Amino acid sequence: MTAFAHETVASTSRYKGPIFEVFSEEVTMSSGGTAKRDVVRNKGAVGIVALDEVDRVVLIRQYRHAVGRRLWELPAGLRDVEGEDLVTTAARELAEEADVDAARWDVLIDMFNSPGFSDETIRIFLARDLTEVPDDKRYSRTDEEADLEIKRVDLDEAVAMIFRGEITNAAAVGGLLAAARARDEGWATLQRA
User: Fold this and answer.
1) How many H helices and E strands in the chain?
2) Which of 145, 157, 166, 185 is catalytic?
3) Secondary-structure class of domain 45-192 per CATH
4) Where does residue 70 rank: exposed (0-12), middle (13-18), buried (19+ CB within 10 A)?
5) The Nudix hydrolase domain covers which part of the protein (predicted)?
6) What 8-state DSSP symbol labels residue 83?
7) What tens digit of pLDDT does each residue of 52-61 get?
8) Angstrom distance (rounded) from CA 65 to CA 178
9) Residue 128, Cβ neighbours under 10 Å: how many?
10) Where exactly are the structural domains of the chain?
11) Bridge partners of 148?
12) Is 132 a residue of the active site?
């Protein structure tokens, strides 16, 4: 069976903001007709599984307005600096959100967060050889990050938190499960960043 080449025959921008743009599109379908689809085009993001020397990961807990609750997550951020290398973005976000620097960076996984309606991707890095950012060089957090909670949790306990429903953020779930699997395989599957 040959894969059908779906083509966009019409596209209308419905909303454009600083983080994403929403389009209504008409797309050819495998059955021969067309269908309307709303698509969110996003800048993409990076996430970081920061693992210390005693196998603990850095988790942050912050308020997420869309779901109306505080969620346990990985340090993460948008790819909002034009032309910035992904490792540089990840290092900046780790320092800003968790007050941590890392000397070693590897790629864990790449994910589409919600491909049914969005093209957003996230690259999850594994950061190791961690050090604390000195107090005088720490980022001043604002908005929902002003009261974020930072906690180090044993990697196996973080995985258990997923199965207890305490960690539900998709990037955190994917990143933590990938890190646990990579660790169990002796880090052989990692790609240097």
Assistant:
1) 3, 11
2) 145
3) alpha beta
4) middle
5) 41-175
6) T
7) 999 999 999 9
8) 27
9) 16
10) 8-41, 45-192
11) none
12) no
